[in-house]
Amino acid sequence: MEDIVDYEQPQAYIVDSTDYSEDYPTPVLTAGKSFIIGYTNETDGICDNLPVIIFDDFTTDSRFVDFPFKIKSSAMKILRVKKEIDIRYVGFYMSITRLVGDTHKRYWISEYSKLPILIPPKAEQERIAAEKKAEEERIAAEKKAEEERLAAEKAEQERIAAQQQSQAQSQNSATVYVTRTGKKYHYNSSCNGGSYSPTTLDNAIKMGLTPCKKCVG
Fold first, then answer.
1. H-helix or E-strand containing 47?
2. What's this model's pTM, rounded to 2 decimal places?
3. Coil, strand, or helix at residue 59?
4. Which residues have a Cβ under 8 Å from the Cβ of 136 and sit 6 or more positions away?
5. Backbone angles phi, psi at 37, to 5 degrees
6. pLDDT per residue over 78-88, tens digit each?
């Protein structure tokens, strides 16, 4: 690896503040699963000599990056490959090659850079890199579709719940008719020829009244 990859220390690209906002333009990256941990409005120290691979020196996680960014952690290396090598091919190799040890140490210089890597002809590198990119795009599209499906499902559930709540509130505020001593509430103010006073269904239920079988059902 060290014969085809040059590394740069990350200090020049570390954010000064972690006061992130989605409204800011520049992503702050990690090589781990979260990848983008926030956005900064800092304009100095942006890594824009691209593309690169960011490498976590402790976990050996890595990510291919082709857009300007900053980083949070100093435990990272910025990697660039020689021009005759497809960087996406190297990124694919690194994405499936991790070192896991029982000590907390930096791996790039001592071990990872010493790993052998098969370098096929440039056309084969590009083919492998293109397949990897297509696979990543497929997975990303499936993830997005699933997120959209879940969001739509949640929105529909919330709509139904709101509709049911509105219907319940409307029903509870509906006018019914009661007598001073009766045990029933009525929809018809002349049911059984009684003398009724209007109230709400909610109040009638709170009074312990039950529906009239004749006019309510």
1. none
2. 0.66
3. coil
4. none
5. -100, -5
6. 999 988 899 99
Q: Which residues in 15-36 are b (16+ Cβ under 10 Å) and which e?
A: beeeebeeeeebbbbbbeeeee
* DSSP notation for 61-96: -EEEE-S-BEES-SSEEEEEE-TTS-HHHHHHHHHT
Tokens of 85: 């090598």
Lookup result for tokens 């990859």: 5
Q: Are 48 and 68 in contact (CB under 8 A)?
A: yes
Distance between CA 179 and CA 201 in Å, rounded? 13
The tokens for 114 are 């010493």
CB 76 within 8 A of CB 10: yes
Rounded CA separation 45/42 (Å) = 8
